[in-house]
């Protein structure tokens, strides 16, 4: 999947008028928010854990090179192999090399944002290797040829009829009649995927965390697909970006307590699996080979800079679920793997602000994303940093640049400012004709496309403040 974040405005407009998407967004938003609220209420020390979790990641990032080296040493001690990859091309090449050496023709995959980031599925298919997603949501959108619309619920925008349509097309001979009920569809997916699990030569998973002190990778799922992906094939390949490392098992246990509650509103996910090396003598199951691919892909450039805080992200999607912009347009509008506020910051860092210039502007700056983030990432501040860079490089539309310059000119001249905006307020109030709002307005079509513009009513704040001072109210 090639990044198309520069098409955000067109895709956002499409999403606003997609009735099925709007229904899905409304339903999912309420579910995610309600469950998170209830889960946090059951844990009085949640806020204290947020502070501790942020401290763990800040400490790790300050010593990232040391912990990565410790992790590598422990992986090798346990019989595994670590592959350092600077970019997507190198990571794909390592996966292909492992598959070719083992003669792999079928690869099962646990959900991995890094695999999406590097475009692994298309790459493997182009080299005669069949990748099969095993997370149910990922599997459905793979059948439909779509990218994920959400980082933890990739197919939430689809209804069960669309599931049934995809299954009927890709699962011929699975019964005399198409299955349409949700349980029937789940049973059908289980039947098909079990065959793929047993036939796979290589299993590929992502990693929620990498533990330096043990050389372990950790994956969190609710379906058990991650366990089958990493234990049944001959080789288990872990795809992880460098910031996923944490120092100790105790650190992981702390962050896990805020992860599930923030993501799905659970006290803990159904499956939390720790993998430490290949199968040892006497082990009843497990892979013969264990490989960890450590991907940089632009992340090391963030360390020590104004975007380092983004590397604390644990991909819980709390910021996405609470974002009014995402809630209006959906994830596909963002054009790549990462959506919502975290995508508005991370995507420009990975593919360049030139290709993602609209994303930092896809925010109302209400601040909910930072308020709910379990790692206390200052997302609005970093979006402002990207906006500054966008303006400096003259990537913002000319009308926006000239409009801002005009505002600066007026703001430096208070008397002229009050005159111009006073006249504008009276004009807008007249155009509203007593309705209190404007359905359309020249030069503001982007705003009024999806909402009304409140009309000025009564006296301005400056007039009220001046009157209060004259009256002796301070």
If you had to describe this structure to a student in words, what would you say it looks like?
It is a single chain. The chain starts with 7 loop residues before the first helix and ends with a helix. The protein has helices at 8-16, 19-41, 46-62, 64-77, 88-101, 113-117, 120-126, 136-144, 160-170, 182-199, 225-231, 249-263, 318-322, 324-329, 340-351, 368-372, 379-392, 398-411, 414-432, 445-448, 461-470; strands at residues 81-85, 106-109, 130-133, 202-205, 209-211, 216-221, 235-241, 245-246, 271-275, 289-295, 437-438, 453-454. The mean pLDDT is 91. The strands form 3 sheets. A 6-stranded parallel beta sheet has the order 1-10-7-4-2-3, with helices on both faces. Among the domains are: 43-300, NagB/RpiA/CoA transferase-like (Rossmann fold); 412-470, no CATH class. It is built from 21 helices and 12 strands. Strand 5 (209-211) and strand 6 (216-221) form a beta hairpin. It is of the alpha/beta class. The radius of gyration is 25 Å and the shape is globular. Helix 3 crosses helix 12 (249-263). 50% of the residues lie in helices and 11% in strands.
